[in-house]
Amino acid sequence: MLYRTAGQFKTSYAADHALFPVRQDAWLLGIILVFAFVIFPLAASEFAFKALLIPVLIYSLAALGLNILTGYAGQLSLGTGAFMGVGAYACYKLISIFPELNPIAAIFLSGFFSAAIGVAFGLPSLRIKGFYLAIATLAAQFFLVWLFEKWAWLYNYNSSGAIQVPTVEMFGVPAFGPNALAIVQYYVVLGIVTVITIASINITRGRIGRIWKSVRDMDIAAELVGINLMKAKLSAFAVSSYIVGIAGALFVFLWRGAAEPVVFDIPLSFRVLFIAIIGGLGSILGNFLGAVLIVALPVLLGTVPAALGLPISSAMVEHLNTMIIGALIIMFLIVEPHGLARFWAITREKLIMWPFPH
Predict the structure, then answer these.
(1) What is the pLDDT of residue 1?
(2) How far apart are CA 126 and CA 137, in angstroms?
(3) What is the rounded CA–CA span in Å between residue 241 and residue 248?
(4) Nearest CA to 54 among 253, 284, 244, 276?
(5) Minimal CA–CA distance to 103: which of 111, 93, 113, 91?
(6) 3-class DSSP state for residue 258?
(7) What is the DSSP letter of 123?
């Protein structure tokens, strides 16, 4: 009943392939944006910003970058964490060398360094694919983390070996560093994620996105019809690494505040990969749904025993949290192997057909 489509007619090819073929989808997105830009900032606490809202957005952006490479272009990668590190260290050096540089500009510029490294390590995709390409990107993961540890210039020769985010102001308001307000950081992250998401939707729905999908489905057939495989694959690596690099800069500068090389090690790459798979490969919406399940739900479950007054130790809460999240992931993959985005698409189709059987 909520998705009644009576009276919604499509009289052109463009209308049939519109971004919102059903009017209720646009309304739903509008409600979500109102919550994100207005209601959440007014109602959220410092804990909610730091533990829920900001990390969900950053991990969603990182999964979006990986999804463009794996879900749309069909190129496996296990080096997402390292490419996030490239973006973080590049942003740190840009702010250190050019202290007058706008911090938002530094974040967007840092993505180009990650894109260049991604293209360099994407060159093996021209010869190998599948499991062998995953191993090549895994080698990039280990090499880049080693480089973060050994090249002292990257962290300005700090004795701790970590990058410390300085206080950087934007329009007279601290945006980076220990003095920055959580609500300011949230709005910066939300704005950047919104802009990149809109750009990604346009790219994946356009000519470049169709080229990536053709290479993913059957690269030999794509080459036979005139698609340049080298350009298609390397462009996917460039766009993916650019987005992941920006996510890495946000990860350090607008959430953690400091980072050591070990932060960007293989567990981070696997976590982003799990978000993309659980959310649904080849889907923009799936990245946000997967981040909510993997990042936000454990935090919410951890607050339940205290809210109910149950005398459970923090260690037991952590174990129960891991068990519940693991069981939910297995259940979702069994019920719908194509991820939460496909699960929502099926639910939406049933709502459109309701009350008729489907």
Answers:
(1) 59
(2) 13
(3) 10
(4) 253
(5) 91
(6) strand
(7) G
